[in-house]
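JOB MANIFEST
job_type = single_chain_structure
chain_count = 1
residues = 680
[input]
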Amino acid sequence: MRRLTILALSLLQIGTARAAVDHIEILDRQPFAAGTEFGATGAYEKIRARAFFAIDPELSANAGISDVALAPLDAQGKVEFSADFLMLRPVDAARGNGTLLYDVVNRGNPVMLGQLDEAPSNLDPSSAADAGNGFLFKRGFTLLWSAWQWDVAVKPGEKRFALKPPVATDHGRPITGKVAYEVIVDALAPMASFAGIGGLPYPFAKSGAPDAQLSWRDRPEGERRPIAHADWSFAAPGDDGMPQEIALKEGFRPGRIYELTYTAKDPVLVGLGMVGIRDLLSYLGANGFEGAPAPAHTLTFGVSQSGRLLKTMILRGLHVDEAGKKVFDGAFIHVAGGGMGGFDGRFAMPTRHFSVLQDHIYPTDYFPFTTTVEYEPLTGAAGSFLDRAHRLDAVPKLVITNDSTEYWNRAAALAHTTPDGTGDVPEAPEARIYLLAGAQHYVGRQHERGIYDNCVNTLDHYRVLRALMVALDGWVRDGTPPPPSTHPRVADGTLVPVDAYKLVFPQIPGLRLPESNLNPPRLDFGPRYANLGIADIVPPRAGPNFTALVPEPNADGIDQGGIELPEVLVPLGTRLGFNTRNEAAGFPWATGRWDGSFIPFARTEAEREASGDPRPSLAARYRDRADYEQRLRQAAARVVGEGFLPADEVDLLVKQNGDLYDRIMAHDPADRSCAYLFPS
């Protein structure tokens, strides 16, 4: 069923709030999954719509957005923009749970159905299969997604969420500025994209970018070596008239970080992405929408980039609307690591972020990191990322989770330690911080080693996310707190420097440990950056690094101090948060961005002794599959009791891992394929 409706908002509808949402246009409304019933909640419907915003640039709630004073204005002196959104909600609102759950899309992609409902990736969820295990639907959540990021490449006909904010000008004259793009390849390539992960570049200030320069270096902190302009060229422009690739005569080589700089023009108001989220949630949280009442509660869910965006919104006070009202009651921030990101600023690039190897020239991890006050030893500054929320009396409930990968690749320890790594910083009463020990950034799915030394880590940590989402909803709904924070700490020795980690890690044959984890650099973009978001130094000057620690391993090499899943308590092998790059892919000293490793135990003691593996074999640990499953079930009961595992998922967990036990026992260790980790 398709129809077109305009919902005009008035000040009477939203009480004393200002009308930041001007109107909403319904683009499409139809039953979801052909009317499939989801338990007691019943059927869902799907609404696609477009929200139109008009914000006052002079209000204090908006004035901090970079270049908002240089945005084009309408006849009322407002800045206009729009954002598409998608809502899945119970047809009968009375059968829902009264909670609106907003999923911050990641580079234009919905995330929560994949992680919480274990559904296949789909930009346009429509069928019962797109609901996966039905977790969120059966519990009656109203689900919401919207566009917030400008640099998302969208193919014709694709329903990826991308924002098109207005362009800032100097009283009608184009604004220009220097930009820098990093390029890394994993194999020799004649051409390479410089636009980032599924991203878009800023347009050239002059046709062909005559001032463009290309250089390379062998490490993030290495010396830049220029490449003669005669040896490289831009590829043919795309549909928008802007090239996104570079051709290099000798080819792009693994083991080199290439950097392109040029003068760009037409900076968009990147920070309006956060404003659009704020104002859409403000409106939907205060008003009925298309026949359904306003939600009783609003939660947000952000994974990786999206979690960093939520932290940035809270740091900036952009989770509070123009009338001073908090727009979400709780935030689930998953695998965001220690920092925030470049989600505002002139010529900002939201898609870019620090890893051990990549993107050290973009603002990602900056002080303050913690939920209570910490001190910056170099500057003497003090603060927490909740300071503004406290001043506004608008602190949301926070569940912050990281996997082992983020302690290596995203400086996650900085979320609960001092910036120099010398001590612990307690979390705020409104926050819980958890390490999902032994898990990687997402559940591993790569069947071959590819660019890595090891097979990826397939530990399913999404079960913990489901348990904690229920806990967060209950915390907001009736004040029942989630389980206590569970993460490694300096004080008890479970959080250590990498050198100390290497001293106690078991000497597993053939396993190469990474040189280091990510220790984020302090970046200097020049004098105007802090207050105006204008970078005068591009690329920035790198100052001293912050110090990030990693969890100490146990005798099997598995991280300690965090939530231990049954598969970690009763292991079949060593599950690591890092995976080193192989020689062919370049940078063998570095870790991959998101993937961890799984190193199975030897099957028998004879096999273990022949290889020199110090870890007891499977035969020494378990009599057979039945014995393994019995111990696993006992461990699962413990984790259920701790509040980190849904009780109704134990049977499937035991069967899946029992099957893995059989596949490991049947796998020849000489076979380097990783396919045995997955059901056939």
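[summary]
The longest helix spans residues 625-642.
The two ends are 40 Å apart (CA to CA).
exit_status = 0
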